[in-house]
Amino acid sequence: MQAILEIKLGRPYQMPTRRMIQLLEQGRRDCCKARNAAIMHWLIWHRMHPTWAPGDPYDPPPLKIKRAPKPASPTAKPPKDPLFGPREFLSRELYDVATKAAPALNSSMASACVQDVLSKLKSNVPYNHDGEARWVWQAILGQEISVPTWRGGRIPVLRSTTKVYYGEDACWVKFSLLSRQSGYRTRSLQVRLHAAALTAGNRRLLRKLVSGELRLADSQLYEKKGEWYFQACYTLPDVAACESERVLTLAPSKPESDYPFRMCWTDTDGKLRDWTAGKAKPLIAEYFRVEARRRALRWRYQGGVGSGHGRKRWAKTIKPMQQSVRDLSTRWQKQFVSDVIKHAIKEGCGAILYREPTMPLREISYFAAVKVPFDWCALCGRLRFKAEAKGLAFEVTRMGTAEWRGEKCETVQAG
To answer: Residue 208 — left, alpha, or beta (φ > 0 → left; ψ -120 to 50 → alpha)?
Structure first.
């Protein structure tokens, strides 16, 4: 399981900020060129070989880096070709096409762009796809959809070519961007990170990432509102490494809080952490937008407007909005449950204690105050299912109104 830490980029060390932005924008365009060239070459090859089947002979291009062949294992199975192309074609030939389309791009980034293309081809078509194809590559060859293209997008940053430093005097990231064919002497950029803008918990997470407690994975660079960000992806620790004695308590937040939930746990240093959880403002804004639309439709159809045409004419505009409200709450709950499970594993907690509110408490809780319907029973069921699926202990205890108003949230031992 992986998680993401987003950090804003600052000034570079080797060059002015304007030149760094130009190089990042050029690198983003080169990544799009590499992806588009790879997928178009794949389509042209299939048009030239319409009768190809897995296992048919294929003459691959020569290796650019010659290495000694690995000794074959007697128990290993021979490699098989995927259904949408020969193995060596998908690795060597598409890589050659990508590097020729973007010669200034670093070779590791070109390889990552090819992997993005292969992931797109192997993905399933949408559930409402109008056709018989199951995968994207089948839909492309069957003329059911057009060839995917990339514009804008993100710059892949591989873990093997990335280094992150966070100390008392500086915080920076160094990554490879350019190749030798680019003509630049400085091919790896070293850029400052705005660690001061992070919260205390995210700064503590960044220190774990730098020290090696959390393993850095392949990350990305992207632009948002004129600013560039480093999206550091890291691998969460194994659930088996979580301590069963450490418990993460999830409870409804205080009446004056801006968040619906709070999480309490004890970290590895023995300090009691108390965090707010659940960003419900997007849910509230979308709910009131749907409700305003429903009120407008009810006002329009009052007084018998549209009568005589059957009830389906009125229901076809109102009923989908009722289902939209339910789907909106369901999506928010699933994302919130996923965030809680990831946070528990990240902090090494082997158990989750959910303080389920009683019926009187639900009537005065955060969602009741903002007049947004919320399914508390569904939340408890989703938490239990996801926690047990990840191997975490789960326990539910009730929280009354008196405890919610007066007592301090404490970490309670499960069991």
So the answer is: alpha
Q: What gap in Å lies between CA 332 and CA 295, rounded to an integer?
A: 23
DSSP secondary structure, 24-35, as one string? HHHHHHHHHHHH
**Token couple for 254:** 């205080």
Q: What is the pLDDT of residues 54-78, one digit of tens each?
A: 888 888 777 766 667 777 777 777 7
For the segment 311-328, the average pLDDT, to the nearest whole number, is: 63
Checking if the pLDDT of 242 tops 70, the result is no
DSSP state of 154: -
pLDDT at residue 321, rounded to an integer: 59
Mean pLDDT (whole number) for 239-249 = 74
Whether 237 and 212 have beta carbons less than 8 Å apart is answered as no
Q: What residue spans of 54-164 are helical by DSSP H?
A: 87-88, 94-101, 107-122, 136-141
| Residue 408: burial class (beta carbons within 10 Å; 0-12, 13-18, 19+) | exposed
- Compute the distance between CA of residue 188 and CA of residue 26 in angstroms, rounded to an integer: 14
What is the distance between the alpha carbons of residues 109 and 188, in angstroms, rounded to a whole number?
12
Going by C-alpha positions, the residue among 286, 378, 268, 371 that lies closest to residue 334 is 378
Q: How far is 278 from 333, CA to CA, in rounded Å?
A: 9
- Give the C-alpha separation, 68 to 64, whole Å: 13
DSSP states of 378-394: HHHHHHHHHHHHTT-EE
**Cα–Cα nearest to 121, from 158, 83, 87, 86:** 83
Distance CA 80, CA 78 (A): 7
Q: Which domains does the chain have, with CATH numbers?
A: 1-65+78-235 (no CATH), 240-406 (3.30.420)
| Residue-averaged pLDDT of the chain | 85
Alpha carbon distance, N-terminus to C-terminus of the chain: 27
Bridge partners of residue 124, in order along the sequence: 135
Give the CA angle between residues 11, 204, 383 to the nearest 5°: 120
**143-155 as b/e: b if 16+ CB within 10 A:** eebeeeebeebbb
